Amino acid sequence: MADKVTALDVAERAGVSRSAVSRVFTPGASVSKRTADKVRTAADALGYRPNVLARSLITGRSRIIGLVVAYLENQFYPEAIERLSRALQAKGYHVLVFMASNSGAEADEVMEELLDYQVDGIIAASVSMSNDLTRRCEAAGIPIVLFNRAQDDDRLSAVTSDNYHGGRKLAEFLLAGGHERIAHIAGWEGASTQRDREAGFVAGLKASGQSLVARGVSDFNFAKAQNVAREMFGGAQRPDAVFVANDHMAFAVMDVLRFELGLSVPDDVSVVGYDDVTLSAWPSYDLTTVRQPAGQMATATVDILMDRLADPDAKPRRVALDGPLILRGSARIPKGWTS
Predict the structure, then answer these.
(1) pLDDT digits (tens, 9 = 90+) for 175-218
(2) Count of CA atoms in the C-beta half-sphere (13 A) of 308
(3) pTM
(4) Which domains does the chain have, with CATH numbers?
């Protein structure tokens, strides 16, 4: 094997100090363009690559952020992961992705494993943190930001859409369309996103003197949403509108209504969802939904994480971003309403 090229070799070839080579390959370090060009030219000629792991032992920073995701089958999360990854890369960080379930025990096990990788911070997407693990991360100086989920823990920062007002918008929209038998198909009831969306939706109905005529729970699961739809709409006294807690489940509900029960969407039943994933705009679904501002959510999440890394004493922040109601063909559009 050929001898490994070192930073000293690059420094000698470029005619600069070893510390200059280190600064060139350290994100955010101050170095002139002339020096950087000389060092990179020498490094390319020698085939040199900096040892990131060795540097992390010296600096105490791995420049790796752990991203834990629990619900990748929902089309919202692949897009969100891409946006989070790009935003972190722009800050000079790399992403280590781990999968978990909504189970607190499994999520904690995954988080424990992440800590073994010496990550600088953690983003938990639709994953809850136990009090014990939160304490351990806090003691280790590892900041955590919850993405698309919140918890009743003042130590944790969280970024979500404004789920309560999003749910309320949907209720007001369906009521304005003249619907009188309105139902809700909930996701996982342990999630703050579910609770807040339903709370806003129910409050919107109540303000006009209405309440849910039917309710089912499908745990953000496609097959369970299909089963709930079969039961909810299989009888004579079916609802004339339904708010499904996210788009992923709304697609399952629409498939059952149209292809199994022979109902027309929206002539027989209006269907609305939440997220505005790419498939929602496809003609096969054309789903009316509340858009989660994924780009803004990713930017806010990374900004909070960077602030906590720069200042460990920075106070945790809670951000809830407004998302617009996107009108499409799956629901009756009230007269005078525009996108």
Answers:
(1) 999 999 999 999 999 889 999 999 999 999 999 999 999 999 99
(2) 25
(3) 0.82
(4) 7-50 (no CATH), 62-161+294-321 (3.40.50.2300), 163-292 (3.40.50.2300)
